[in-house]
Amino acid sequence: MAKDAPPRWDRRMQQRLARGEAAALGELYDRFASLVHSIAHRVLDDDAAADQITREVFGHVWEKPDAYDPRQGSMRSWVAGLTHRQAVQRLRRTGAAALTDGGEGTSEELEQKVRRASAAARADYIVTSMPAPLRAALELAYFQRRDYRQTAADLGVTEDEARRRLRLGLQLLSTANPRHQDGLWSPPGYGQHG
């Protein structure tokens, strides 16, 4: 899903990184480090491994800022895609090594684990990327167990609007289900990578 004109911030950030501005890397880290760590942790279920992936992703961005193509999508999607690919590669490597060393399970079970982790990472990314009104409605309905009437009252919107927000939010979340694709996820604009 290519876009005609990338957001101004994304273009400027890429230019600053390409010039080697350390402050740009710091700004990028401040903006996306929690996203990177959460995606990596969701895939790997290991805090230390997620920390390592976070360092690797920002190292890659620093070394290869021209790898980002603004026509392919946002910088956020690109960074999320890098994170996802590196985390999945690490999960496959460690899982395959465990199988080789006589660990329990099969390669098919490892692939199922990769697909589940990928879907969970996609769901997290979708929730953090969706517009705030949709996210707020879903959070009320899911975490606080509110029905659409209570959600409408809590948000100060009509019941029809609350139903619309919940429906749209759930439709977005449904795309995280591996049945909609090959089970592996890449953010919008960056194709299927594993």
TrEMBL record:
SUPFAM superfamilies reported in the protein's UniProt record: Sigma2 domain of RNA polymerase sigma factors, Sigma3 and sigma4 domains of RNA polymerase sigma factors
Gene3D superfamilies, A to Z: 1.10.1740.10, Winged helix-like DNA-binding domain superfamily/Winged helix DNA-binding domain (1.10.10.10)
Matching InterPro entries: RNA_pol_sigma-70-like, RNA_pol_sigma-70_dom, RNA_pol_sigma70_r2, RNA_pol_sigma_r2, RNA_pol_sigma_r3/r4-like, WH-like_DNA-bd_sf
Pfam families xrefs: Sigma70_r2 (PF04542)
Domain RNA polymerase sigma-70 region: 28-95
Keyword terms of this UniProt record: Sigma factor, Transcription, Transcription regulation
Family designation: Belongs to the sigma-70 factor family. ECF subfamily.
The protein, known as: Sigma-70 family RNA polymerase sigma factor
Species whose genome carries this gene: Streptomyces enissocaesilis
